[in-house]
Each structure stands twice: as structure tokens, then as C-alpha cells.
């Protein structure tokens, strides 16, 4: 699979656009800094609100709606410490020239109104070339790490059959495109055998190519014997008073725990609201995979995305590793 994806990452303190005509970065004046520093907790509580506005055209026809919400929440830092913060959530959905579009923003601000983390997502569902843009800001010490990705359509490269050492071999194609701020993009296509062997490499626009001259011995997957199945005796726990009492106690414990978590994390309502919004707009066939791809960027232990685009979509599910191993590895 090949798609035009532009992905950049930088730090706002060290990264500045090149060129003689670049404008200096805006700076806050001393009066604004003194005003923000003078705000107290009681005054910040006056900022909390939730409102939904209707979007209408010049003729008064409904076009969509805009939702804005500011609440007090908790933010988990890199070391796992929880601190109080201002949680800002804004989302809109509607139509632009009869094309479905929407955007969402999630932000975490400190009590000094300093940005700690921000996630934004925009999409326009063009009939020919759909576009989706994501950007994340994450505070690291005294800098902001910026990650931005833009997706414009996609193309299925599929499988092909090539000749290697007088043999026919089926390969699947992976295309990598590197975009630069200066110059034209450079694309390379990689033809891979079923076990991952690189059989052919083509640089788009180059008259030559690289290809293996001898067919390798393909590695086969090990056959895993099925686990033995032991029959279990049915347990009618509903008729056992002790087990049924434990079930009711555990059910009530989970209900209270979930309710307490939602009270302490108002951003959970916003995340679920955004997920249901995009779920209704896109109506994916595989809801579970769509949910994993939507909530994946909010997972602090999520591995980095691969640099190559592939005909096989990456697995959005995280491997089931012990929680202690994952945290120790991340530390």
C-alpha cells in the first residue's frame, strides 16, 4: 500500500524555518506575562464551562455544530505523577461545500496556563482524495515536541510475480516516499518475498534497479501444535448463594470504580464523544480495529510508527506484555 503521508517532528525551541524572509517568532509581552502570573485558582475556576453552538450558513441553513468544554482534570506526567490541570476540548462537525468535514482538539494546561500536551485532528471527506491531518504537541522540559502527519488518499500496490534465478516468485510491494522542504520527493519501491527477503529495489525515476541473482531458501512458519483441551464441568454459580453474593459485591465494586474514574477524568467523556462522532461519520466495517487506531495515539507505551508504508496495514493492537516489563522498558 502506498499513501502520500507527510510526517514531521521537531522541537519548537531549536527548529526555525529556513530562508532569509522567515519572520521572527512572536513573544509575549511583559504585561501579558504578569497578568497570567497573577491569576489565582478561584479565578481559573470561572473559566470552566461547556457549550454547544449550531453552525449555520448565510441563509440560515444548519451546517453542523461546535462543542467547547473547559474543565478541571488530572494529567499524568512522564514519571507517572498525577497533577491537576485545565482540560480543554473542542470539536466541530458539519459540511463544507456539501463535503463532510470535522475537527477535534484536546489540550492540557497547567495551573499557570502553560501548554503540557495537545492533540488535534482534522479531516475533509473529499469524494476523490480524502484528507486527514493530525498534530500533537508534548512538553518536554522547556521545549515542545511537535509531531505532524498529513494523509492524502491511498493506493493499493498489491502483489506481483517476478522472475528470480529462472524461477517465478510472488512478491508484495512496499513504497517509501521521502518529502523534503527543499527539492522534489524521492520514492523507492521494495519487492519483498513472503518471508521478508528483499528481492528487488527500484528508485522511481531511475533507469536501473537492484535485484537478487539467486533464489533464497524461504523460511517457513513453524507449525504450532494445538493446546490440549480439558473439559470443564459446568458451574451453576447463580444457584450458589456464596458465589452469587461475591458476584454482586464485585459488580458493585466495579460500578463504583468506573464512576469514580469518570469523575476524576472528565477528558474520558470527551474522548468517547469524539470516538462516537467519528464512528458515526465514517461507519467502518471493523469497529474494533477502528477503535484501536483512534485511541492508539493516547497510549503512552505505544511503539513508534514504522518509516515505510506497506501493502499490509500495521497492527494497531499493542502486544500483550506484562505491565511491569513494559514500564521498565519505557523507563
TrEMBL record:
Residues 1-10 have a biased composition (Polar residues). It is found in: Cell membrane; Cytoplasm, Cytoskeleton; Nucleus. It comes from the Eukaryota. Residues 1-20, 305-331 are annotated as: Disordered. One of its GO terms (biological process) is cilium organization. Its main location: membrane. Residues 31-155 form the Ciliogenesis-associated TTC17-interacting protein N-terminal domain. The keyword Cytoplasm applies. Residues 320-331 have a biased composition (Basic and acidic residues). The keyword Cytoplasm applies. Keywords: Cell membrane, Cilium biogenesis/degradation, Cytoplasm, Cytoskeleton, Membrane, Nucleus. It holds the Pfam family CATIP_N. One of its GO terms (cellular component) is nucleus. Plays a role in primary ciliogenesis by modulating actin polymerization. Belongs to the CATIP family. This is Ciliogenesis-associated TTC17-interacting protein. It comes from Pan paniscus. The lineage of its organism: Eukaryota, Metazoa, Chordata, Craniata, Vertebrata.
Amino acid at each position: 500500500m502506498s499513501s502520500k503521508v507527510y510526517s514531521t517532528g521537531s522541537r519548537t525551541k531549536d527548529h526555525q524555518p529556513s530562508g532569509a524572509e522567515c519572520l521572527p517568532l512572536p513573544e509575549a509581552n511583559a504585561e501579558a506575562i504578569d497578568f497570567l502570573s497573577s491569576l489565582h485558582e478561584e479565578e481559573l475556576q470561572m473559566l470552566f464551562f461547556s457549550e454547544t453552538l449550531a453552525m449555520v450558513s448565510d441563509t440560515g441553513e444548519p451546517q453542523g455544530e461546535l462543542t467547547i468544554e473547559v474543565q478541571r482534570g488530572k494529567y499524568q506526567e512522564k514519571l507517572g505523577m498525577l497533577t491537576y490541570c485545565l482540560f480543554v476540548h473542542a470539536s466541530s462537525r458539519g459540511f463544507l461545500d456539501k463535503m463532510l468535514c470535522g475537527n477535534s482538539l484536546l489540550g492540557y494546561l497547567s495551573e499557570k496556563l502553560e501548554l503540557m500536551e495537545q492533540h488535534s485532528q482534522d479531516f475533509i471527506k473529499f469524494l476523490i482524495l480524502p484528507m486527514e491531518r493530525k498534530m500533537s504537541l508534548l512538553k518536554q522540559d522547556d521545549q515542545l515536541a511537535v509531531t505532524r502527519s498529513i494523509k492524502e488518499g491511498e493506493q493499493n500496490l498489491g502483489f506481483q510475480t517476478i522472475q528470480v534465478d529462472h524461477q517465478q516468485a510472488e512478491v508484495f510491494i512496499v513504497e517509501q516516499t521521502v518529502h523534503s522542504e527543499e527539492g522534489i520527493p524521492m520514492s523507492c519501491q521494495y519487492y519483498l518475498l513472503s518471508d521478508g527477503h528483499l528481492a528487488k529495489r527500484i528508485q522511481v525515476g531511475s533507469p536501473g534497479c537492484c535485484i537478487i541473482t539467486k533464489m533464497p531458501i524461504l523460511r517457513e512458519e513453524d507449525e504450532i501444535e494445538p493446546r490440549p483441551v480439558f473439559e470443564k464441568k459446568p458451574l451453576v454459580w447463580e444457584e450458589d448463594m456464596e458465589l452469587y453474593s461475591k458476584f454482586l459485591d464485585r459488580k458493585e465494586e466495579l460500578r463504583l470504580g468506573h464512576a469514580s474514574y469518570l469523575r476524576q477524568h472528565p477528558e474520558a467523556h470527551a474522548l468517547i464523544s469524539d470516538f462516537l462522532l467519528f464512528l458515526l461519520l465514517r461507519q467502518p466495517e471493523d469497529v474494533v480495529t477502528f477503535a484501536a487506531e483512534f485511541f492508539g495515539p493516547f497510549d503512552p507505551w505505544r511503539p513508534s510508527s514504522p518509516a515505510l508504508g506497506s501493502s499490509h496495514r500495521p497492527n494497531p493492537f499493542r502486544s500483550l506484555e506484562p505491565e511491569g516489563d513494559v514500564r521498565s522498558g519505557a523507563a
